[in-house]
Amino acid sequence: MTLSRLVAAAVAAVLGAPDLASAFPPAPAPDFAAEKCYGINIRGRNDCAAPGAHACAGESQLSNDPKSWIYVPTGTCAKIAGGSLSPKS
Q: 0.70 exceeded by the pTM?
């Protein structure tokens, strides 16, 4: 009985894995001319991955995370306090 439950759990995990991978997909590219602006996100509202911090959109644990970015209209990032076109350390 225990072996059959283990096998059922393994099958469910394999079948459910694609759903988990798509839970936080990368943000789609905007339909306007955009640039990535680092350091101005709100916690949990980033557009994609930050090396060494999280894997994808919506996973930032910090507001104004220097490694997380969001899309902004081209030319806007330099005008935002704390905004940067490259990740900060």
A: no
